């Protein structure tokens, strides 16, 4: 159980990629991956929320275990994530209104992104210490961004190609995700 | 007469017309992650059913008390409470199952189906129709999970509910129980349903227009 921070980072980035191997955060993955210029900022925003949520969750977990209130864990994590999302929303609205509009409904929906809550829950379940949690959430966020950017690039190319009507839409995206996921399996075993 | 038709309509909406899995494509994350086997899929479906029905009922009862500005936060706290209950129940009933599903029980909180129902339906309707609608929705979800889980288990392990189907000569198609298989099977189902809808449209057009619409 003594993984180094670097191992955890590489592992969550590639071998156990949140989206393609653990099935977390699929809704934004399929929803905002249509265009590259929204996919990347969305990935960054999610990464930031993940980092904040993971650090707060770490502190909060210490507090809850101290008072033996573990059953409140889920509720308090959700509240932390919702506040972090609110923060990102305010910052974006002030400094980049155009981006704020482009992300639209998907921005508040980061609250219900399972990847964010997943990071917080998995780090608690695996009993990571502070440095490990940090590496875990950065790796997870980077992995999410990577998957989103890859998917968006492929889908942008596909708009120019001739695809049968029947396959258009979600079915096509899912098949693409399957192929991406297949190629990410090649990383298995990397990072110990 | 009219009232019973309405209730029946509420009930069947989620099972077929608005099926959360195949039509709305909501709640993908728990769906793909736990459908490695039929048993896991059913447990997950039942847990979601409990949370969805209870939270819909409570949200609907409180719909006049909650101010509009804080409604999403209230819904999430309500949902998280019921998920915690389910989490502890499954842990008490079957530890093996709890370990197989792992954190995905707790991740029911962020299942878009539940929040979506609370926001779109339960907050606007009285408790009884809201709960009936929730039951229909969850049955639709269970059907979707089961369709996915059984196909993946049959192809990937050659078993159904742990019972071997093909004898010892069967070479399992392992990729189907691994992550890529989940994407492929769901994509396949969606493809099947869109093909079916297309075919139905075409036969109807052929019947009414005497073949003038063929293109």
Q: Mind explaining what this structure looks like?
A:
The complex is a heterodimer of chains A (192) and B (215). With 192 residues, chain A is an all-alpha fold. Chain A has one domain (5-158, 167-183). Chain A is 70% helix and 0% strand. The model of chain A has no long low-confidence stretch (mean pLDDT 84). With 215 residues, chain B is mainly α. Chain B has one domain. Chain B has eight helices and two strands, in the order αααααααββα. Chain B has helices at residues 2-17, 28-34, 38-61, 71-93, 95-101, 112-122, 127-157, 179-209, and strands at 159-160, 163-164. A two-stranded antiparallel sheet of chain B has the order 1-2. In chain B, α1 (2-17) packs parallel to α7. Chain B starts with a helix and ends in a 6-residue tail after the last helix. In chain B, 42% of the residues are buried.
Shape verdict of chain B: globular
Sketch the major β-sheet of chain A: none
- Class per helix and strand makeup of chain A: mainly alpha
Q: Give the % helix of chain B.
A: 55-70%
Alpha-carbon distance between the termini of chain B? 43 Å
Could you give the order of strands across the largest sheet of chain B?
Answer: 1-2
Summarize the model shown:
The complex is a heterodimer of chains A (192) and B (215). With 192 residues, chain A is mainly α.
Which structural traits does this protein have?
heterodimer, A: about 190 residues, mainly alpha, 8 helices, about 0% strand, globular, B: about 220 residues, two-stranded antiparallel sheet, 2 strands
Task: Summarize the helices and strands and which ones pair or pack.
The complex is a heterodimer of chains A (192) and B (215).
Chain A: H1 5-15, H2 26-31, H3 36-66, H4 73-95, H5 97-103, H6 114-125, H7 130-158, H8 170-184
Helix pairs in contact in A: 1-7, 3-4, 3-6, 3-7, 4-5, 4-6, 6-7, 7-8
Chain B: H1 2-17, H2 28-34, H3 38-61, H4 71-93, H5 95-101, H6 112-122, H7 127-157, E1 159-160, E2 163-164, H8 179-209
Antiparallel strand pairs in B: 1-2
